[in-house]
């Protein structure tokens, strides 16, 4: 954890250092310090469980952005037997911020699509920090249409700060590409599974985010805007991102409560970055259960449910306006009737 620890994880780092120091001292001196080590380890486990069970929305955003968090290609290696990447949108080029291709999970053939970030500066530049261009969304749609043709379910893994807002992207039709994806995914005749694994921000996430089942990693976030962007707009101060994160209701628990997602996928204690292999196992089991559930539903029914699911989002009811009460005859008699005077009439 050292070197990549977040601010709120510092107390755990101190305990880890003490445990490591005791182990080295025990080895070098030959003195048995196992009882002290066990005591500190229990204290560490207890504090870790307490800390990660009461994370604030902003702390979850920080975990979703952790530099060691498993990205799409990490998860692909963990959950698939084989993966054949496909490239290009057949119009402009190949956007490396979105990756997709044929995959096999156990014995199930699927089409995998998702955002990919980089681990270092060079790779982040190549991947555009996980911010897709229009050709990325067109590539994703091309692969989804291919999946429909070959009767393969689609799995979309979302992890993006948002679609790229540069001039070139706008000139090549960024908004239209996302809007077209929304329309086409809504009527794609194949099962669709969406999983937000890290950041799920704005239309950049929604552009590959229409599905029959929408799930989220426990420490991911899904929002119309980043906390910093929201704070800059509402309070003219990006530093109020903690307040914005709370107001946006962007955590998995908040979204499940408002029926915007269908399932929360648990992470290892401390976050997905602490144990990639365990996170891969958990994700694989969930995906296989989703696929088994969806294959039992007829396609026409599946599309109808998908449409109704998204149409129901954001719907709310208001209390009926109070009806004007008609006074009783007795009440009317008690109120003196004043003669009506035209506002144009004036006393001389």
Structure write-up:
- The chain is α/β, with parallel strands linked by helices and 348 residues long.
- It has a single domain (66-311), classed as 2-enoyl-CoA Hydratase, Chain A, domain 1.
- Helices cover 46% and strands 14% of the residues.
- It has 15 helices and eight strands.
- Strands 1, 2, 3, 4, 5, 6, 7 and 8 form an eight-stranded mixed β-sheet that branches.
- Helix 9 (202-206) links the parallel strand 5 and strand 6.
- The radius of gyration is 27 Å and the shape is globular.
- The model has no long low-confidence stretch (mean pLDDT 89).
Helices and strands in order, then pairings?
Blueprint: H1 10-29, H2 34-52, H3 57-64, H4 72-79, E1 82-86, E2 98-105, E3 108-115, H5 121-127, H6 134-149, E4 154-160, H7 167-171, H8 174-186, E5 192-201, H9 202-206, E6 213-217, E7 221-223, H10 227-234, H11 241-248, H12 252-257, E8 263-265, H13 276-294, H14 299-311, H15 329-334
Parallel strand pairs: 3-4, 4-5, 5-6, 5-7, 6-8
Antiparallel strand pairs: 1-2, 2-3
Helix pairs in contact: 1-2, 3-11, 4-13, 6-8, 10-11
């Amino acid at each position: 954890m050292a070197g990549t620890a977040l601010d709120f994880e510092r107390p755990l780092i101190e305990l880890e250092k003490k445990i490591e120091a005791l182990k080295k001292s025990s080895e070098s001196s030959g003195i048995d310090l196992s009882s002290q080590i066990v005591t500190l380890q229990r204290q560490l486990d207890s504090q870790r469980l307490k800390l990660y069970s009461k994370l604030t929305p902003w702390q979850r955003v920080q975990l979703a952005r952790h530099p060691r968090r498993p990205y799409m290609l990490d998860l692909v290696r963990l959950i698939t037997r084989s993966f054949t990447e496909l490239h290009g949108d057949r119009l402009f080029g190949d956007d490396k911020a979105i990756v997709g291709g044929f995959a096999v999970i156990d014995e199930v053939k699927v089409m995998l699509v998702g955002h990919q970030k980089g681990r270092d500066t060079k790779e982040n530049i190549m991947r555009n920090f996980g911010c897709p261009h229009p050709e990325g969304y067109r590539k994703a749609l091309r692969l989804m249409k291919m999946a429909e043709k070959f009767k393969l379910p689609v799995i979309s893994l979302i992890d993006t700060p948002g679609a790229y807002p540069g001039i070139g992207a706008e000139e090549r039709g960024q908004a239209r590409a996302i809007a077209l994806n929304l329309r086409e995914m809504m009527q794609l005749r194949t099962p669709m599974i969406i999983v937000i694994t890290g950041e799920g921000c704005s239309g950049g996430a929604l552009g590959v985010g229409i599905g029959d089942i929408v799930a989220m990693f426990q420490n991911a976030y899904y929002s119309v805007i980043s906390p910093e962007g929201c704070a800059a707009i509402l309070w003219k101060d990006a530093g109020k991102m903690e307040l914005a994160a709370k107001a946006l209701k962007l955590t998995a628990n908040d979204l499940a409560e408002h029926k915007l997602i269908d399932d929360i996928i648990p992470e290892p204690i401390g976050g997905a970055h602490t144990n990639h292999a365990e996170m891969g196992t958990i994700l694989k089991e969930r995906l296989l259960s989703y696929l088994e559930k969806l294959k039992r539903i007829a396609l026409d029914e599946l599309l109808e449910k998908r449409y109704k699911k998204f149409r129901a989002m954001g719907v709310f009811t208001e209390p009926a306006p109070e009806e004007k009460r008609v006074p009783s005859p007795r009440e009317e008699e008690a109120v003196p009737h004043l003669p009506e005077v035209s506002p144009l009439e004036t006393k001389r």
